[in-house]
Design brief:
Blueprint (H helix, E strand, L loop, with lengths): L8 H18 L8 E8 L2 E5 L10 E6 L2 E11 L2 E6 L11 E6 L2 E2 L9 E2 L19 E2 L16 E2 L4 H6 L2 E2 L3 E6 L5 H8 L7 E7 L3 H11 L7 E6 L5 H20 L3 E7 L1 H14 L4 E3 L2 E2 H12 L2 E2 L6 E9 L8 H9 L2 E4 L2 H5 L12 E2 L2 H4 L2 H19 L1 H5 L9 H17 L11 H12 L12
Parallel strand pairs: 8-14, 12-19, 12-20, 13-14, 13-15, 15-19
Antiparallel strand pairs: 1-2, 1-6, 2-5, 3-4, 3-6, 4-5, 7-9, 10-11, 16-17, 18-19, 20-21
The protein binds adenosine-5'-triphosphate and magnesium ion.
């Protein structure tokens, strides 16, 4: 028997399909376009459903909570969940809170930011009112210019620090690392280098520093140069996300001025704390460690940041990067020191033993190298430095022998010259942070050697 009021089979099927679709799209993960909902919460990260198809690794999302909108970075994407690291620690996150995709994090640097101190998000923290945004919003994770389009690095400049200008002179667009254990003098040397007058702008990223040091650095070091400097600060008590973002934001500001044709000095203190922040974020997202506790992403992020420094394309300026690297337990071969040394165009090594002797800045001239030095030296200066290094090496290797009285003056003319001249060189290299930058380090050295030789011409010349 046919039931007249029963709907035909095809219509029932269609209705069932429609109800199914309606139910699926009413589910929380489809309720927001390009958005999703918090599914699980853990210390250091939370997961979001409904976003996996829309977001890319490294993009930012906005999480709406009872206290407002909070940003987070996508640190891992799985088919059914995106892992997000919140920027601010301790933000109230609830299951099913709405999370919306924001894309790359951007800042709009402006000339009027000079003289100001900002946080990693590009917000002012100096209590001097809001910052005017520039015309162009730039992603803080931009790529480096293509290598073949970049100008060459060949213009030397004076830093004003004698030990560097004599033994490891630098060029505009060079990337230099200062390697030392804790408390040896990295920050002090950086503050001396920040005063070099070869630059139109100075951008400083202070990462993981103590709050007390930040104010000292900015007020004492940048005092004269403040009008051309911008400081980006994430102190040690801030979240790993902010510590990770601070050098990226600082580099983005440096790129803004480089694109205008200016020569920019980028200083980061310290890059090791940047690496620690990346490690904390990556570990929270479940990335396994590969080298002494560091996950693989640390070793991709470091070159990504440092490659952005250097010369720009034709018509653009340069970014000279000087960064400090804390070598754990004075071990210069720890994974961060090792990998950054390979990326950089030079390294300055600070020795604890020199600091203990009171020989500040404690730069070891034999262990420090500037790969661009040849382009900054004249042929005579290069010869003189090579000769001085030989004398210093002779002087140091015979130190113990001489101390126990095992050397008789006159047996080795080279060593006799080293004994006479190296202490004079060491004296010239000493420099207090309060001293004015030196205009001509070679002239200072020549004068000191001359007066030590009783007014005779400088003897530290190659023989024969
Ligand atoms: N050029 C210098 N002249 C005199 N003293 C110096 C000089 N450089 C460093 N010092 C001394 O060394 C101390 C430590 O220096 P600094 O804070 O720069 O070290 P650091 O390597 O940055 O330390 P940390 O690893 O803790 O950041 C300073 O407080 C100062 O007393
Ligand atoms: Mg320091």
């Amino acid at each position: 028997m046919i039931e007249l009021d029963a709907p035909p089979v095809s219509v029932t099927g269609k209705l069932t399909q429609l109800v199914g679709l309606a139910e699926r799209y009413a589910a929380p993960e489809h309720a927001v376009t390009n958005g999703g909902h918090v599914r699980t919460i853990a210390a250091g990260h939370y997961t979001v459903t409904g976003l996996s198809r829309h977001v890319r690794l490294g993009e930012f999302v906005a999480h709406r909570s009872a206290t407002g909108i909070h940003l987070g970075e996508v640190v891992r994407v799985e088919p059914d969940a995106a892992y997000v690291c919140p920027i601010e620690p301790g933000e109230p996150i609830g299951i099913h809170d709405v999370v919306i995709r924001k894309g790359a994090f951007r800042i709009a640097p402006n000339e009027s930011w000079c003289g100001r101190t900002i946080n990693a998000l590009g917000e002012p923290i100096d209590g001097r009112g809001p910052l005017a945004p520039g015309d162009v919003r730039r992603s803080i994770s931009a790529s480096a210019p293509p290598s073949m389009a970049r100008r060459r690095v060949d213009e030397g400049f004076r830093t004003g620090v004698r030990a560097i200008d004599i033994f490891s002179p630098l060029c505009l667009g060079q990337r230099l690392g200062i390697f030392a254990g804790s408390g040896v003098g990295k920050s002090t040397l950086l503050s001396m280098l920040a005063r070099a007058d070869a630059f139109d702008r100075v951008v400083i990223a202070l990462v993981g520093e103590r709050g007390r040091e930040v104010r000292e650095f900015i007020e004492d070091t940048l005092a004269d140069n403040m009008s051309k400097s911008i400081a980006v600060v994430a102190t040690s008590d801030e979240s790993p996300m902010l510590r990770k973002m601070a050098p990226l934001s600082a580099m983005t500001i440096a790129e803004h001025f480089r694109d205008k044709g200016e020569n920019v000095l980028f200083i980061a203190d310290s890059i090791t704390r940047f690496a620690h922040a990346i490690r904390e974020v990556a570990m929270a997202a479940g990335e396994p460690p590969v080298a002494r506790g560091y996950p693989a992403s640390v070793f991709t992020e470091l070159p990504r940041l440092l490659e952005r420094a250097g010369p720009g394309e034709e018509g653009q300026g340069t970014i000279t990067a000087i960064i400090s690297i804390l070598v754990d337990g004075d071990n210069h071969n720890d994974p961060i020191a090792d990998s950054t040394r390979g990326i950089l165009d030079g390294h300055i090594v600070l020795d604890r033993s020199l600091a203990e002797e009171g020989r500040y800045p404690p730069i070891n001239p034999l262990a420090s190298i500037s790969r661009m030095a040849r382009k900054a030296w004249t042929p005579e200066q290069e010869k003189l430095v090579s000769r001085l290094k030989t004398l210093i090496h002779r002087f140091e290797e015979t130190r113990d022998l001489r101390l126990i009285g095992g050397y008789r003056t006159g047996s080795d003319p080279d060593l006799d010259m080293a004994i006479k001249q190296v202490p004079v060189v060491y004296e010239v290299l000493k420099q207090l942070p309060s001293e004015r930058p030196t205009a001509d380090a070679y002239a200072d050295l020549a004068n000191a050697l001359k007066s030590a030789a009783g007014g005779q011409p400088v003897a530290a010349k190659p023989r024969g």
